[in-house]
Amino acid sequence: MTLSGGELRDLAGLAAAPVTRWLGHELVLLDETTSTNDEAARLGRDGAHHGLVIVADTQTRGRGRQGHGWYSPPGENLYLSALLRLDCPPRLAPPLTLAAGVAVHDAVASLGVRATLDWPNDVRAGGRKLAGILTETTTRGQTLEFVVLGIGLDVGTTAFPPELQPIATSLALELAPASAPSRAHALAALLVELERWLDRFIAGGAAAIVPAWRERSELIGTRVRVQDGARTVTGIAHALDEEGALLVHGDDGAHHRIFSGEVTTA
Ligand code: BTN
Questions:
Q1: Which of 180, 209, 232, 247 has CA atoms 20 to 30 A from the CA of 32?
Q2: Bridge-based pairing state of the strands 2-3 and 27-33
Q3: pLDDT for 161-187, tens place per residue?
Q4: What is the C-alpha separation between 194 and 156, in angstroms, rounded?
Q5: Assign residue 112 a region: left if phi > 0, alpha if psi is -120 to 50, beta otherwise?
Q6: Domain 223-265 is of which CATH architecture?
Q7: Which of 121, 159, 156 is CA-nearest to residue 263?
């Protein structure tokens, strides 16, 4: 374990007594970093091993998908990245985001919060975003060198900035004060579920994850608007296929198979 300063001492017990078989046995706890995804990629380039997990107390440039930032105040939430070295071609890695979504869903369920999944990476409770996932791959030619799986889970924030108040929530806001988990408890639950679903993904690929994702999502069957760069598709999200792509029956009469983009329910 690497521990800088003391802001995350509440999490140090996890390194001493791991709750997992392999994930996070190498645990780096940082008081502050730009982004745990950046830090994990840097360590990955330096040869760090499969299963390394980095957790920061705060991020100065926390990143979300599509160029968005990620609100990362100190002392309140979980910001973590896992470094994964997988024996699969790069094109098979994106559904890892779905596996992480299922894992976050099940982790918060074990803490008493009923969440739903939006494609590809939002975890929502009561219609607001509770967690986000940012998966970034590093390739060499046609080979996947490593994947960084970044997860932001809002655990303790009770006063979001005004612009986030209508769209963000946390475990503390979703639960009665007496049931709100500590960060250490939430991290333990998250690592256990993440390892369970990563094991399934490693053994069975996207097909082992997609049915579980579907069961935890309310998106299928609803009207959606998908923004993928300059392309906009509106229509009915009618399925998630075995590779994790979203199938949309478009208002233009065409069937769209969508691999990336920002989905809003229309
Ligand atoms: C999103 O929903 O847009 C994805 C948000 C991902 C946030 C996490 S916090 C830990 C890791 N480090 C980052 O900079 N981003 C991810």
A1: 180
A2: parallel
A3: 999 999 999 999 999 988 889 999 999
A4: 20
A5: left
A6: Roll (2.30)
A7: 121
The answer to whether the CB of 132 is under 6 A from ligand 1 is yes
Averaged pLDDT of the chain: 92
pLDDT in tens, 129-147: 999 999 999 999 889 999 9
The segment(s) of the chain belonging to CATH 3.30.930.10 are 5-215
All CATH 2.30.30.100 domain ranges in the chain, comma separated: 223-265
Q: Is 62 in the pocket of ligand 1 (CB under 6 A)?
A: yes
Ligand 1 mutation target, pool 28, 53, 58, 70, most atoms within 8 A of CB: 70
Q: Specify whether the CB–CB gap between 51 and 84 falls below 8 A.
A: yes
**How many angstroms is it from 178 CA to the middle of ligand 1?**
28
263/104: higher pLDDT: 104
Distance 177 CA to ligand 1 centre (A): 26
Q: What's the predicted TM-score (pTM) here?
A: 0.93
Q: Is the CB of 64 under 6 A from ligand 1?
A: yes
Give the CATH number of domain 5-215.
3.30.930.10
Query: Looking at the predicted structure, is the pLDDT value of residue 1 above 60?
Result: no
Q: Ligand 1 within 6 A of 36 CB?
A: yes
pLDDT of 4 higher than 90: no
Does 120 sit in the ligand 1 pocket, CB within 6 Å?
no
Which ligand 1 atom lies nearest to the CA of residue 151? Answer: 8
Q: Which residues pair with 69 in a beta bridge?
A: 63
Q: Indicate if ligand 1 lies below 6 Å from the C-beta of 63.
A: yes
